[in-house]
């Protein structure tokens, strides 16, 4: 009876989260419950604090990739008390499953943002607007992400330091990447660039298709090495590493918060939406935050500091709601300006070309309706193996350079997946992308459920810059996000070159074994251009302009003389006492690679900066 109740309630809860179209859920949930997964897991979920004290030493706003790290590390000091406020709930059984990553988008664990239409990008999405998922859950976007573990290029961090940020060069940040890491692939763990024993588990998915091996071999045929792209050099091809543990997702909440949940000096409050900072306008000191929890407005005070780790959209939103931001914008909304700062500027994201599809003749790709629910689910539950452990479908990664880049600092990344938009028969992927019916029905429906694979060329260092602005004074109105993709001509030119390299890779001899060929139904809005010409690829890129969800830069770190800087190199907000920002928004330029590991690195380093500032004899 107890078992049945648990099953039914978990199933109902989950179906509410991911929709009812998922045929394998009941089976999976039965298996998970039968094996009493929670009890076997040495790290059971964190404790949601019912009662919140009046005052803490530190308040961390947002328990995402960076915030979870900050809260965990601050609570290592027994005499400091820390409160972590997170707007979303805890993770669930579905978010644990690596292959179901896309199913979390547009669910209640997603802020479900959309960017403004520009007419230059996202033309194949409904109303010309791309979806911008962000995790609204403990663990933040590390719960929604595709788990790819990528650090970026050493030159990214050397650049940060050269912009006036001492302590942020590659050698310095490498220490922090390694501090977090527990790499479980021995061939990587033993190198100088990786480590074992940290909180964050990193390993390859235990399952792969022959297509990823062909991808790596094709890279070699093109003159690129099969190498650890997080190691000495970045250019090359490899089977992806991911933040997974025993075949399931290792979010930052699992990695950094669960092991320390019994510490008396750390409290975590879920479903606590921070609405503004409390700032004394005379002293310009932040002394607490206001938040809404279960419909009730509350305040909590900070003795030492408030740390904003709400991510690249919400950290600037909270600052602007509190009177810290661009003067004219705040005045227009009637928000008293406490400090004129370039908050919300400098928005950068990796935009890529989605939908490039190659068909193959052999049954070697991921085709949703071919996978057998029962054996696949049992393999996942009992052994942590099989297709359900694939990193959101992505198997291979590569860094290459176009004619505009160079080998030591590649300008294009490829994500290779043994599936494409057609592989689930139109059930989910087209929806999370927000594709128009015309585009899907014309191009992808004719090949629905056919064996295929994709490569997504991604622009690593865009020149275009966007903004985040408030829609209104209400903390519950979504901010206006203008990604401003392709404002700069060079961005589109580089991506077109990336597309051509991708096609060359797909034509290499190794892929011929599978009779791999480009899917050539033209996009309806691109028919005026000759298929395969530069102009056609440009039109394709502007039609399925794909974010891979890496917004950064909106509370830029920089030296005092840089008028666009919001935080100093110790991540303290200029002109305000007791306030730091520690998340992807501080990045002055976007790293050349996926941003989760860099966000965790920022969390690690940020926590150490706080410790240095409060514990050194001088302070
Ligand atoms: C769908 C998707 C796929 C991705 N795939 C990858 C990948 O494979 N590899 C990779 O490296 N990167 C990936 N990324 C990017 C990566 O996950 C992010 O860059 C990283 O998680 C950002 O970390 P953060 O700490 O800046 O913000 P987040 O992790 O987003 O954390 C912000 C937290 O603050 C909370 N919050 C926001 N506002 C408030 C408020 N007002 N009050 C209280 N709490 C608040 C949020 O709910 C959230 O928990 C992906 C991202 C997404 C969305």
Automatic annotation (TrEMBL):
Pfam families found in the cross-reference section: GMC_oxred_C, GMC_oxred_N
UniProt keyword list: FAD, Flavoprotein
Location of the Glucose-methanol-choline oxidoreductase N-terminal domain: 135-158, 311-325
SUPFAM superfamilies with a match to the protein in the record: FAD-linked reductases, C-terminal domain (SSF54373), FAD/NAD(P)-binding domain (SSF51905)
Entries under InterPro entries matching the protein: FAD/NAD-bd_sf, GMC_OxRdtase, GMC_OxRdtase_N, GMC_OxRtase_C
Similarity annotation: Belongs to the GMC oxidoreductase family.
Protein name: Glucose dehydrogenase [FAD, quinone]-like
Organism: Nicrophorus vespilloides (Boreal carrion beetle)
């Amino acid at each position: 009876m107890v078992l049945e109740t648990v099953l039914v309630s978990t199933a109902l809860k989950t179906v509410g989260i991911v929709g009812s179209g998922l045929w394998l859920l009941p089976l999976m949930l039965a298996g998970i419950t039968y094996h009493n997964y929670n009890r076997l897991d040495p790290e059971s979920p964190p404790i949601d604090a019912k009662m919140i004290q009046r005052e803490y030493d530190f308040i961390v706003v947002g328990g995402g990739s960076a915030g979870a790290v900050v809260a965990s590390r601050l609570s290592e000091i027994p005499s400091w008390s820390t409160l972590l406020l997170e707007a979303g709930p805890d993770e669930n059984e579905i978010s644990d499953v690596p292959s179901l990553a896309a199913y979390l988008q547009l669910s209640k664990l997603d802020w479900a943002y959309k960017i403004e239409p520009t007419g230059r990008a996202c033309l194949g999405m409904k109303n010309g607007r791309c979806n911008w998922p962000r995790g609204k859950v403990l663990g933040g976007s590390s719960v929604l992400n595709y788990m790819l573990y990528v650090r970026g290029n050493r030159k990214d961090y050397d650049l940060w330091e050269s912009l006036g940020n001492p302590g942020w060069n590659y050698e310095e940040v490498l220490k922090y990447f390694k501090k977090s890491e527990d790499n479980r692939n021995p061939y990587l763990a033993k190198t100088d660039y990786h480590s074992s024993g940290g909180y964050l588990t990193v390993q390859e998915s235990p399952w792969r298709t022959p297509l990823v091996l062909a991808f790596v071999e094709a890279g070699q045929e093109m003159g690129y090495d099969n190498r650890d792209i997080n190691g000495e050099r970045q250019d090359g091809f490899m089977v992806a590493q991911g933040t997974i543990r025993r075949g399931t997702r290792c979010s930052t909440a699992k990695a950094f918060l669960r092991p320390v949940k019994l510490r008396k000096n750390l409290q975590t409050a879920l479903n606590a939406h921070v609405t503004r900072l409390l700032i004394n306008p005379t002293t310009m000191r932040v002394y607490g935050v206001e938040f809404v929890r279960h419909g009730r407005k509350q305040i909590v005070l900070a003795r030492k500091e408030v740390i904003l780790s709400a991510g690249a959209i919400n950290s600037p939103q909270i600052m602007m709601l509190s009177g810290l931001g661009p003067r004219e914008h705040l005045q227009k909304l009637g928000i008293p300006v406490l400090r004129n700062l370039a908050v919300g500027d400098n928005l950068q994201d990796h935009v890529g070309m989605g939908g490039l599809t190659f068909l193959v003749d052999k049954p070697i790709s991921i085709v949703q309706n071919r996978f057998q629910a029962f054996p696949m689910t049992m393999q996942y539950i009992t052994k942590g193996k099989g297709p359900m452990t694939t990193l959101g479908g992505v198997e291979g990664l590569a860094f290459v350079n176009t004619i505009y880049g160079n080998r030591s600092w590649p300008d294009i990344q490829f994500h290779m997946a043994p599936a494409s938009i057609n592989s689930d028969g139109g059930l989910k992927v087209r929806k999370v992308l927000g594709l128009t019916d015309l585009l899907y029905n014309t191009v992808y429906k004719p090949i629905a459920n056919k064996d295929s694979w994709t490569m997504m060329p991604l622009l690593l260092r865009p020149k275009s810059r966007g903004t985040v602005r408030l829609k209104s004074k209400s903390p519950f109105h979504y901010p206006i996000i203008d990604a401003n993709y392709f404002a700069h001509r060079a961005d589109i030119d580089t991506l077109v070159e990336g597309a051509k390299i991708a096609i060359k890779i797909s034509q290499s001899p190794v892929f011929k074994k599978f009779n791999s060929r480009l899917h050539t139904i033209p996009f309806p809005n691109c028919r005026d251009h000759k298929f395969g010409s530069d102009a056609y690829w440009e039109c394709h890129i502007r039609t399925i302009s794909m974010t891979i969800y890496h917004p950064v830069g909106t509370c830029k770190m920089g030296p005092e003389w840089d008028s666009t800087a919001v935080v100093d190199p110790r991540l303290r907000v200029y002109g305000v006492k007791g306030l730091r920002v520690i998340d992807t928004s501080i990045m002055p330029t976007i790293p050349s690679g996926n941003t989760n590991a860099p966000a965790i690195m920022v969390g690690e380093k940020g926590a150490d900066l706080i410790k240095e500032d409060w514990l050194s004899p001088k302070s």
